[in-house]
Amino acid sequence: MQTQRTALVVGANGGIGQETCSALLRHGWQVRALVRRAPEGEQHGIDWRIGDAMHCADVAAAGTGVDVIVHAVNPPGYRGWDRLVLPMIDNTIAAARVHGARIVLPGTVYNYGPDAFPLLREDAPQHPQTRKGEIRVAMEQRLQAASEAGVRALVLRCGDFFGPRPGNNWFAQGLMQAGKPVKRLSYPGDYAIGHSWAYLPDVAETLARLLDREKELARFERFHFGGYWADGQAMLDAVRRGSGDDSIKAARFPWWLAQLMSPFNETMRELCKMRYLWREPVQLDDRKLKAFLGGDIYTPIDQAVRASLIGAGCIAASSEHALLTA
Q1: Is the residue at 1 inside a domain?
Q2: Tell me, what DSSP letter sits at residue 312?
Q3: How many structural domains are present in the chain?
Q4: What SS3 state is found at 220?
Q5: Strand partners, 246
Q6: Among positive and negative, which fits the CA dihedral 227, 220, 10, 64?
């Protein structure tokens, strides 16, 4: 009889952390969550541990007896990456080494530069254009070095996250204003250029499915999550359908304002550095992932966008019922 597996999710209050907890519970895992503050209200099935990912002892204590550590923690609003990101991954690596756990890292496209565009494979060269990208490369390099010393690691690289839980992402805080009806879509790039989007529940479900077959994974394993390859017009159309409002206008994200604010606002400053990802097509090649799991991975985009609009408070949940029964 197989003993129930246990996963520690570091950063369980974030968007990917919350969704990963839910997906792992559905797949029969015991879930432990390391957070600085437990969420209010009853959270069925999750063993909450209070601690700080910056404290090695906190991560090590929370990781006692676990099979997997999901490293889902990021500084909010792009702030403090130079000070925080690498020490946190080092603490996760240290805990995984002590407890024999596999590390799971939800990755990004930040670690790629234009020389790898437009179609990114798992082994594409990593020549980032920004300091955040360099840090992402360093995170993966540390995981790979740890794997050579016996630590198992899984990296799932994704495009821009969005989903039904409120969060710090382009969809809810850039394209539109959370909590308000959508009147215009403030798209950050050319409407004709394709972009990769990752629906968080699908990312989390994919991670859970990969971990169901953990014994088949390489010691250091990488997959690309293709998600939705959509240009600005396709995303505008999906938002119009999801909200039931064909009058939503196509607009441009005010980069000039972000640039003006950047000397005084770290989030805006770091946001401007990532603009290059909106100037060219950037697509993740997911053939390896589909070959391993099968092709049925992604929620239909209209369903994903509709759920995300509800989560962002841009439409009421009753609107979803009306659209489905119309």
Answers
A1: no
A2: T
A3: 2
A4: strand
A5: none
A6: positive
Q: How many alpha carbons lie under 13 Å from residue 261 in its C-beta half-sphere?
A: 12
To which residue do tokens 């002892």 refer?
57
My answer on whether 128 and 202 are in the same domain is yes
CA distance 126 to 116: 7
Asked if residues 217 and 67 have their Cβ atoms less than 8 Å apart, the reply is no
The amino acid at residue 182 is V
Looking at residue 315, its amino acid is I
Q: Element (H or E) spanning 185, and its range?
A: strand 184-187
C-alpha–C-alpha distance, residues 152 and 146, integer Å: 8
Residue at 263 is within a domain: yes
| Structure tokens given for 235 | 């995303």
What tens digit of pLDDT does each residue of 160-199 get?
999 998 677 889 888 998 899 999 999 999 999 999 999 9
| Whether residues 265 and 251 fall in one domain | yes
Q: What are the tens digits of pLDDT across the range 215-252?
A: 999 999 999 999 999 999 999 999 999 999 999 999 99
Backbone angles phi, psi at 24, to 5 degrees: -65, -40
Q: What is the pTM of this model?
A: 0.94
